Amino acid sequence: AVPVALVSGLSRAAAIGVLVKGGGALETLAKVRVLVVDKTGTLTHGTARLASARAFAPFGEPEALRLAASLDQASGHPIARALVEEARRRGLALSQPTKVIEHPGEGVSGWVERRHVLVGGPRLMRMHDVRFPPADGAGHAGATTATVLVAVDGMPAAVLELADPLRTDGGRALSALRACGIERVVLATGDRRAVAEALVAGLPVDAVAADLDPAAKTGAVAAERRNGPVMMVGDGVNDAPALASADLGVALGARGAAAAAEAADVVLLVDSLAPLPEAVRIARRARAIAL
Ligand code: ADP
Ligand code: MG
Q: Which positions are tagged coiled coil (predicted)?
């Protein structure tokens, strides 16, 4: 039987919007020492705005955005939602995509109006042998927190820079977690290193692992386990394997992917990292009483 102290810990956690899937998960929550945190949609809001775009002839910016957003209607990724919203704001007429393939952590491919469209990161473009001209300078380094490449019929069509700001409570949550016994914080992202490092400058983050596909994210979690029990926090389909492999997987449930919530041991029911430090304290108290 689950000790009474654990049961009451579970209900205290639930009351602050943290769903802990059982007494075992609550005990692990009390023991975690390392935090591996995802970037897009977890440390950032994932409600990105298009900050700048560079289109390549013969495509203009509106056409590249229209094709990308048409395809991204089929994706639940935060970047996809942002592109669709931006296209709607601009009054662009979107078409239904067909034969859509979602590549978790890489992007999306499919057909829009008889054109083959790719929307995603550099790995997706390499997979399809699309070569982009080298980037001219750092772009909008500070504000830019995601870069999305668009290719049409095997040709580069646009580079979209999205500003996806840090959650207002993101830095505070990391500091509060450190104050309650998390000794090491690692950012693990599918995005590029420059973008990830710019985002966490000034935050209590010890290491950045970038350019990770879902398998590499799982590898990053495995590597951190030598530093202590690992809690992984993420929101996306691409985080699900890493969440399952961590000592404790924590999913952002409010806007995150269902696959992440299923793979996790803990689901944050609010769209915020803020209750996590308090949940750790609740778990520690419950464990101290139960022992
Ligand atoms: P993180 O690991 O930080 O949450 P992801 O792995 O989800 O980030 O995404 C990494 C990169 O993959 C994004 O910056 C973007 O370039 C690309 N990407 C992934 N999915 C999509 C999508 N549906 N639409 C556009 N770009 C995508
Ligand atoms: Mg994410």
A: none
The highest-level CATH class for domain 4-45+166-290 is alpha beta
What is the distance in A from the centroid of ligand 1 to the CA of 191?
A: 7
Question: Model confidence over 227-277: pLDDT tens digits?
Answer: 999 999 999 999 999 999 999 999 998 888 999 999 999 999 998 999 999
Mutate to test the pocket of ligand 1, among 38, 79, 124 (most ligand atoms within 8 A of CB): 79
170-194 pLDDT per residue, tens? 899 999 999 999 999 999 999 889 8
Closest CA to 192 of 214, 210, 180, 166: 210
Say which ligand is closest to the CA of 255: 2
Confidence class for position 112, pLDDT limits 50, 70, 90: very high
Active site residue 265: no
Please state the CATH superfamily assignment of the domain spanning residues 49-163 in this structure: Calcium-transporting ATPase, cytoplasmic domain N (3.40.1110.10)
Please, which residues have CB within 8 angstroms of residue 82's CB and are 6 or more apart in sequence? 46, 47, 48, 49, 50, 162, 164
